[in-house]
Model the fold of this input.
Amino acid sequence: AGRAAESSVARARAGENGTFDASAYRALVARAVRAAVGSRCSQGAGSRVVIALVIGRTGAISSASIASSSGNGAFDAASAAAVRSAGPFPAPTGRSAVNVPVAVSCR
Done:
């Protein structure tokens, strides 16, 4: 699993021609967020919140805010905390910052 993760990080940082691959980077962030959310879903079964995440040039989260509320304040707050705990992320090569909308859904 370690090699696969390293490979996805490399793909997220640079595309085929060495440019930033936004799609791969967003997928990498989404996987990390899903792992961080884990058991917090007990607070919001059936809920969905969208967090607007800004990741700076070093990979650190520079801001995380609710873009679309679930209507459940406790779930929104727990989701935002989980998203913040998922970082830092790999530095987005060639970018000063990356905006990543992150949807957190619990069934």
Observations:
- Confidence is low (pLDDT under 50) at residues 1-8.
- The longest helix spans residues 22-37.
- Helices lie at 2-13, 22-37, 73-86.
- The chain is about 40% helix and 25% strand.
